[in-house]
Amino acid sequence: MSMFDGFKFRSVSSPVHQMDPRAKFIYVCILFVVTVMFSNLIPLIILFLIQVPFVFMARVQKEWMRSMKGSAMFAVIIFVMNLLSLYFYTGYETFGSILERSLAMTVRFIVLVQTFSIFFLTTSPDMLGLALEQSHIPYEICFAFTTAVRFVPVLAEEAQTIMDAQKARGLEMEGGNFFKRIRNYIPILIPLIVNAIRRSLELAETMESRAWGANRNRTNLYVLKMRREDVLLILISLVILAVSIYVSMNVQMPSIIQLLTS
Amino acid sequence: MPIDNGSDEQMIVMDDVYFTYPNGVEALMGVNLKIEDGEFVAIMGQNGAGKTTLVKHINGLLKPTKGRVLIDGVETTKVSVATLARKVGLVFQNPDHQLFSETVEEEISFALKNFGYDEKTIKKRVDWALNLLDLNEYRKVSPFMLSGGERKRVALASVLAWDPKIVILDEPTIGQDYRQKERLRQFIVQLNRQGKTVIIVTHDVEFVAECNPTIMLMRQGRIIATGEAREILTNETLVNQASVALPEITKIFKGLEDFGFPRKVIDVYEAADILYERLGGQR
User: Inter-chain contact B96–A187, Cβ cutoff 8 Å?
Assistant: First the structure.
């Protein structure tokens, strides 16, 4: 659960929270592309470090730490898998370079987690919906999207209650073989799905009784406007992209092992 | 040799229980209580006072952060929920959180199968529970096709079927019409007479007044008062602290205090008798 807390919106008043979600989205997309572009350790560490001030600016260090801690286990798995597969399937490399490659893949994963964690921690689902809407995506789709996002925590809580209710009726969740464990989930999934469907029908009715879709041309109370900071963020992101493309095409990236041994 | 738990009759003992949810909410802050075997208790209090958290400690769904909970002499941290559930039947507020079977009959047999009863016993118990809650005609019906009140009765039947020593009902009166409520009341009183320890969590002050149980008032994670219904429900200060209302009939008698009427009246029939007498009626 703690891992997901690192992706749940935190209402804090900070310059990052106030930024235009579209600007942040562009930033996330560019960071994603750049992170996937590099497979060397040095640029990936740089990508990790340049985002740290952003975390502190957004004042979400605690939640960010959670997402980092939560991803630690996956990071270890990625590291070990890479190490093993590189060791057994690419015979020509030295152990140092294998170690570095594996580390690079691990850091890449951490950077991705970090980037998305920052985005979701600082962007409320409402803002996200607003951004979609004001990018001229049909309102029905935007609404479906924001509703889906909003109901995730509700469903998680409900799943917990259902689990409690069935445990109170003697259901043992732990133990048993694989098939028994899967069967144990039936008494939990059925009420969960039935309630979700029931809730969506109710939601549709209440929405219609509040005249949903009555007006073709919707207006918004909040209109997103790009401010100077937002433009700046987009510019920084574009510079990162440009530099990365240049570096990856023209610069032979040194490895840390080489730097240390030379 | 019985295990020493202070006293033989104590069914539920909570000893300075604290509970903090993972998100940091302190739901229980030093709860001490003793409930005897066969006692009938109503836990009342404002929303978020910790009532549901408290009852979830009784069947071990939640374990205390600090302090200890003993059920029939056994500490809840030492046994699984399934083991405790054999003794403690907890009926959740919303039946939709537990119904999943294709028929009412299967729904009721779910717990019995979990506890490992044999086919014959299961059938007998299911028949018994269906009769008990007047659900015989729905035996082969899908629980999802039933009305809200009926679903609630199915949930109740599915718990009573294994005959737990302690029966806990979380908000049993919500969504029930007057007649069902009256039936439920009689039913609960009857369960208690049969020797079961019954605990109800509710806001419904009229319902409690008519049942006449021991009342525990909760406020902000603490039990602020324990006592007889007549004493607690007529104490305006206490009742206000727990965001519970006085029963309607108590309000009337409070207003009539200047005319020499007794103050501590919570029961409508008793009230009728007093008024009848005052108006010169002969019994």
Answer: no
